[in-house]
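Rotation project, supervised by the postdoc (A.L.). Task for the rotation student: set up a whole-complex structure prediction and record inputs and outputs verbatim in this book. Inputs entered:
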Amino acid sequence: MKHILHLFKAAATALLFVSASLGQTTSIVIRNASIIDGTGKAAFRGDLRIKNGRIDKIGKIKPNKTEEVIDATGLVLAPGFIDIHNHSESGLLREGAAASQVSQGITTILVGPDGGSPWPIADYLRRLEGKVAPNVGAFIGHAELRTQVMKQDTKRTATPEEIAAMAKLVEQAMQEGAFGLSSGLEYDTGYMASIEEMVELAKAAARYKGIYMSHIRDEEEGFRTAMEEAIRIGRDANLPVQISHIKMGNRNVWGKSAEAIQLVEAARKAGQDVTADAYPYTAWASTITVLVPSRRHDDRAEVEKGLNNVGGADKVLITSHAANRSYEMRNMAQISAEKGISPVDLYIEIVKAGGAGVVCNSMNEEDVKAFYTRPWVMVSSDGGIGSRHPRGTGTFTRVLGRFVRENKWLSLEAAVKKMSAMPAARLGLKDRGLIKKGMRADLVLFDANSVIDRATFAEPQNFSVGIRSVFVNGMRVWDGDKVTGAMPGELLKHN
Ligand SMILES: [Zn+2]
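Outputs recorded:
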């Protein structure tokens, strides 16, 4: 029996191999699709041939007998979605098929945002070779640089020698194919960095035509200064700036998206290249300590203020707490009521016990809409494989189902552009992000009438519906219900 099972396994592997190599060389014709090409122009009806991993022809196509034909009547064919801000660094090593990602139409993932990246970039990319369904590229993270050079001693400004050492590492990362420098200045490891440090490191990225992508120092009351800082780093180091997951983080800044927009648009008008991305939720996910920006985590008044700023303890869902797993997936109001202590005491207890991951519902939908409808804001997830926030599995389908179809905030064509051509242009990817002859065949076929996210805060891993087929480099990786097992993803290097 064991022997037979082995034979069967070998045969199955061989079959998979044959079909995988066939998928690369045979051609596929997708007929009668409503094609949205990523430029923003109106959808048009047509056929498309995939051949040798590229888009071979668009128009009226008469398939020959050897070709696979897909009838796409009633479906939209779009460029595969590019997620410029994704936390799947370790997830891709565990699960290269990336079901939660490709099932929402993602064909290219950029890892290493928020200052946290693999190191060295070249080794990380090499480990994924031949083992991933989506294409993968990386940013070099500022916090990782600080940890490499300053070790545990990061809660201070860096010396000129340390900055020079970090700049050398940026150069190495850029030579290894990084797309730019990412930072997470709101987090402890990056928080003490001076603007001079950031400018020096950004200059190193600029020498290789990289971008500066930042989770800015403050997304709440101090957002103006934080945004001005990001814009100034771009100006002084002479490189493009991407503001990560642009948002109005708490109640005190609700309705101020207009001011943030004005800041960015003034810089753009002055000729600076500044763009942003946003995830389609009113809840953020982070570490619990960002609730108290003063970092005085046992000062009762500060903690109380922090909880009030987000609308109260019931708005804070604990998603991970290693010291006490029973807290997970419950909000701080529930836990503190059950324990008979105040939410302030609960906060202090949790931070003392090592902190926690939280999802905090403290944004306002009007601000999300204001950002989403700006032409310089693209879609990103800030999620990834195994994310405990629904954005990890539901971001792109949520935009298509809720923001486009239900809310009518933007056209389908505009939304697709924000998911494909815009991030491709931002990253300098010249052969992806558009449906155009000769481009790599990264494609997503979906039903615009039913596509929607199913991931929720209680069940963040639920797959979306409505994504019928996803192709990466011409090979199908998602068949509408499940991953195919094909691993055609390429490791992308910036050049
Ligand atoms: Zn972030």
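Student's summary: The chain is about 35% helix and 20% strand.
Supervisor addendum: Residues 114, 184, 215, 244-245, 382 surround zinc ion (CB under 6 Å).
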